Amino acid sequence: MRPFLHGDITALARALVALPRADWPRRAVEIMAQAEAADIYRIRTGRAHPLWGNGSLMAAANATEQLPESGLEDRVFCAALAYVFAMIATRNGQETKADQAKVRPFRN
């Protein structure tokens, strides 16, 4: 899958808020898998996948029903954003570059 950008986060969150919260985990994993499959397709064929796009999370999320982006005063949208960030942060248990360098951006 392609690297995550701001638009990927908001696109997936917009797809999630269109669903009941109980469906978020299943649907988020499905969309992530579709993005990964689309990226493999793009690498092999040199073209975007006909349904899931270019391998970005945004393209795969945009292929689903989405609500318009809300402001941060919308608690459900904020919860969806937090869910997506948490999912990405724990994806594959990968360390960040800051973790690898033992960088502490804030004092304890």
Textual characterization of the structure:
The protein has 108 residues and is mainly alpha-helical. The protein is 55% helix and 0% strand. The protein has helices at 6-17, 24-45, 57-62, 75-89, 97-100. The radius of gyration is 15 Å and the shape is globular. It starts with 5 loop residues before the first helix and ends in an 8-residue tail after the last helix.
Short recap of the structure:
With 108 residues, this protein is an all-alpha fold.
Topology:
Layout lengths: L5 H12 L6 H22 L11 H6 L12 H15 L7 H4 L8
Secondary structure category? mainly alpha
Strand content: under 5%
The number of distinct helices, counting runs of at least 4 residues, comes to 5
Instruction: Report the helical percentage.
Output: 40-55%
The shape, in one word, is: globular
Cα Rg: 15 Å
Q: Are there runs of 5+ residues with pLDDT below 50, and where? A: 101-108
Distance between the termini: 34 Å
Question: How many strands in all?
Answer: 0
Largest sheet: none
Q: Would you list the SSEs in sequence order as H and E?
A: HHHHH
What is the mean predicted local confidence, pLDDT?
A: 87
What are the defining features of this structure?
108 residues, mainly alpha, 5 helices, 55% helix, disordered C terminus
